[in-house]
Amino acid sequence: MSGKSTEIFLIPLAYDHIQGKTGRGSKARCQALADRVKRVPGYLDSNCVVVVSAGYTKESPATPTPEQSRSLAYQQVVFMRTLLPQADYIVKPPVWGTENEIRAASEYINQYCLYKNIDPKLCEVLISSNPIHLFRVKIWCRHVMSDMNIQFIEADHRFSIKETVRELLKLARDHYTTKYFDVWPY
Predict the structure, then answer these.
(1) DSSP of the chain
(2) pTM (2 decimals)?
(3) What is the rounded CA–CA span in Å between residue 106 and residue 80?
(4) For residue range 101-149, what is the model confidence (pLDDT) as tens digits?
(5) In-domain check, residue 183
(6) Nearest to 51 by CA among 85, 89, 5
(7) How many domains are there within the chain?
(8) Distance between terminal CA atoms of the chain?
């Protein structure tokens, strides 16, 4: 990807609550995208649209709770605006989980392209996450966003051993319980 597209969509997949003490993962994912936009010639001249959709909690993605009054998407927008103030920000209705965030972003990008009369193949989509999670993200993107130019950006945060095991279990679950894994990433 060269930064020659006039439409760049940035998708920082949520990880943790930025407002909390452990907000390093979501911040790292946002920072990775902002760094890429600033580093690639042409990206800053493009129309950057940040698409976020992460909800409040796994148990209550669409509704605030006493413990969590701000959605992860809202927190990401507040943080990203300090990094890329010139970008447009789209907060989709709150969802939870990798697949749902990718589907929400894909739906928005397709609607945006239809409205603007742009071929989605001419847009660039940058998605950030950590290296272990990106494996599963690539699988979902190849199914849900197969007609889009996608670039996967590695964020500088690591899963703990427990989180790595959980991610591997999710990968196995997704493989054996869905029909979407006919194309595995290289």
Answers:
(1) --S--SEEEEEE---S-TTSTTTHHHHHHHHHHHHHHHHSTTTTTSEEEEEEEE-S-SS-SSS--SS--S-HHHHHHHHHHHH-TTSEEEEEEEE-SHHHHHHHHHHHHHHHHHHHT--GGGSEEEEEE-HHHHHHHHHHHHHHSTTSEEEEEE-S----HHHHHHHHHHHHHHHHH-S--SS---
(2) 0.88
(3) 20
(4) 999 999 999 999 999 999 988 899 999 999 989 988 988 888 888 889 9
(5) no
(6) 89
(7) 1
(8) 18
Task: Give the CATH number of the domain where residue 101 resides.
Answer: 3.40.50
Angstrom CA distances, 36 to 66, 126, 128, 150, stand at: 36, 9, 10, 13
Alpha-carbon distance of 37 to 27, in angstroms, equals 15
- Contact criterion met (CB below 8 Å) for 60 and 23: no
> Distance between CA 65 and CA 158 in Å, rounded?
28
CA proximity to 180, closest of 106, 109, 125, 110 = 106
Is 25 contained in some domain? Answer: yes
